[in-house]
Write a structure and sequence with these properties.
The chain has 3 domains: about 25-90, Single alpha-helices involved in coiled-coils or other helix-helix interfaces (Up-down Bundle), CATH 1.20.5; about 90-305, Rossmann fold, CATH 3.40.50; about 315-365, no CATH class. The chain is about 55% helix and about 10% strand. It has helices at about 5, 30-40, 45-55, 60-70, 75-85, 105-120, 135, 140-145, 150, 170-185, 200-205, 230-235, 245-260, 285-305, 305-330, 335-350, 355-365; strands at about 95-100, 125-130, 155-160, 190-195, 210-215, 235-240, 275. Helix 13 (about 245-260) links the parallel strand 6 (about 235-240) and strand 7. Helix 3 crosses helix 5 and helix 4 packs antiparallel against helix 10 (about 170-185).
Amino acid sequence: MSDKNKHIENNPEYKALIVNQGIEKPASVDNHSVKRFLEKKRKLLPVEEYVDGILKGNITLLSKAVTLVESSRPEHQEIAQQVILRCLPYSGNSIRIGITGVPGVGKSTFIEALGKYITQRGGKLAVLAIDPSSERSKGSILGDKTRMEELSVDRLAYIRPSPSAGSLGGVARKTRETIALCEAAGFNHIFIETVGVGQSETAVHSMSDFFLLLMLAGAGDELQGIKRGIMEMADLIAINKSDGNNLEKAQMAKQQYKNALHLFPKKESDWEPKVLTCSALTKTGIPDVWEKIEEYRKLTSESGYFSQKRKEQASFWMHETIAEHIKRSFYYHPLMKEKIKEYEQKVLNSELSSFAAAGELLTIFSDMK
C-alpha cells in the first residue's frame, strides 16, 4: 500500500503537506535483557551461604530462603529442606503468638502497636500469616504491611506475606518452616496472623505457644459471629477499640466474655484465660496484654507444659506433612488424574458409590507403588 493511500494528507488536494511512512516502533522492553535479569535473580546459592546469612541475621538471605520454602519446584524444595535442617539447632528460642480476630477488629493496628512495644524493648519480631484463601482473594497481608507503616520500617521487625497458593495444610506447613528460619535469624518473637477464615485458626493454634483472640465491643451480641471452638482455644481475649464512646460497652463486653469462658473446660496448661480491654489506636492497654503473655510463658515454662506442647506440635506437623505429601502424590500422578476423572464420572452416573470408587482408586494407587 502506498503512502498516499495510508495518509490522506498525501492526496493531491493537500499540496502543502507530505507525511512520510515513518519507521516501526521498537519494542519498549529488551526481552533478552529481561531474560538475563530473571536468570540472575533466580540464581540459587549454595546451602552454606543461605545458612550463614540467616544465622547472621541477613534479612535478604532470609527472604530468599523463605521464597525457596514457599516454592513448589523440586530443586527449590531440596535446597530449602537442607537449609531448614541446618538451621533447626538454632531455632526454638522464641515466643510464638497466634493472633486472630473478627472482621473490622483493627488487627493490623493492634499488631503494629504490640509489635512496636516489643521492638522498643529490644525484642526482634517476625510477623507471618496463614492465608489459605489468598489464591482466590489475593489475601490482605500485603495491605497489612502498607498499613503497618512504623513496623514495616523497623529494623527489629520482619513482615512476611503469606504463601499465595496451596491448601491450608500446605500453607501452614510452609509457615511453620518459615518460623524455624526466622528464629534461627534471631527473631525471638513470632506473630502468626490468620488472614483467611475458618480452619486457619486451628492451624495457627497448632503452631503457636499463646493464642490471642481480638474482639470488638458494641457490635451487637458480643458472643455472636465467633465459633465456640475458637473461644476455647483462646489464652487471652483482647477487646480492641476500647476508647471514647466505646469504653462503657467494652467493660460490659469484658464481663460477658469472662462469664462465657467460665463455661469452658479447664485448660491442660492450668492457665486461666484472661479478658482485657485495649485500644491499639491510643496504645492504652497494650502493656497489659504483653504482661499477660509474659505471665503465661512463666507459668507454662515452670510447669513444663511450654516445652511439652512444642514437642506435641512437632509430632503433629510430622503427620500433617506425611498426609499432605501422600495427598499430592495421589492427585498429581499423571495416571491417577485420568483414573480420578473416570471414576468421578461413574459416581455421577450412579454406576458406583462414592465409597466404592474411592476404595478402587486407592487400590489402583497402591498397586502402582
